[in-house]
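note to self: dont lose this again. the chain is below, predicted strucutre after it. 362 aa total, dont forget to put it in the shared folder this time
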Amino acid sequence: MAVLAALVVSVSSWQNASADTAAKNSDHRVGVVEYHLGDTTFTDRDWSGRSELAGVVHYPTDLPAGAPLIVQLHRQAYSCATDDPDASWPCPPGVRSVPSYRGYDYLSEALARRGFVVVSLSANGINAFMGTSTQRAHLINRQLAMWQKLAATGMGPLAGRFRDPATGRAAAVDFRGRVDMRRVGTMGHSVGGLGVMRQAADRFRGEWPAGVTIRAVVPIASVYFEENEGDNSDTLITKIPFAVVSAECWSSGADRQYFDNARGKNTVPAYLVTVRGANHSFFNTQWSPSSGQWGASDDSTCPDNPARLSETTERMLAVEYLTAYYERTLRDDKRYDAILTGARPLAVPGVTATAEYLPPAK
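---
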């Protein structure tokens, strides 16, 4: 049976909780590097497309040994800043790519300040060639294999490939021995959410790279799809304490199906939070109207809802909830149980959310 709790957060509770959070936050300084191994370096069996191997990394500059790794994957969106129907990938000459993978910088920085290493992957080629959850899952595994090699030996495809995004100059960051590939979390947005659920599903755990263990999975404002109707095994997770973040003003609530599928089967907790007034795009700054980015829009399905969240509030919600979730799952900090189960309110003013919790069934 799921445990439900409605969270209506007042300004005073937010202020008190924020002070508490700040006191516990070690507030590391954050460094940022990017890597790009080529626009067509990722291919996959039974798929005619090609995609890039690229990402942006936020990390604590005083990188301790054994920092957990969090990997983020964006949604289906414009790959190139053009409405030319004949444009493919890589982008045509003179047309820039849309940096969807930079849309979570706000979240990555907040998590890196707490000592996590956070990698946001670019998947424009997968979007351009209409890749499926299979390609997204395989892209994650390919990237994790590169990170495992780098963390274990300092070698591999990522060695010497980091650059300062502000200057384009080479950046030397030593991740060897400093990233714990046995404590990996993922987050996927929209179809990226379908991708991370596919990658971590019980059925596909054998595809994880050697030396890699996934311990946390979050689909956020996600789609839900069964390749074979009636068979949910492609995305069924029962051995990892995953959390679904559902946006009221975008989907029909289909993403809660991930949560319901685990009911009666989960060996660890599962979580669901439904956020009133949240839409799809605002979790990613690149797709939000204030960015001025190509194709950015307010895609709310309830534009007249008085509970609609602003861009800023929606992102504050993401930071607060995902911080609590990753602290609990990747660091085993039980102080955050109350937030995940709904016993304690989220520290975000003006947010109403319903938290549901599945205790282990076995």
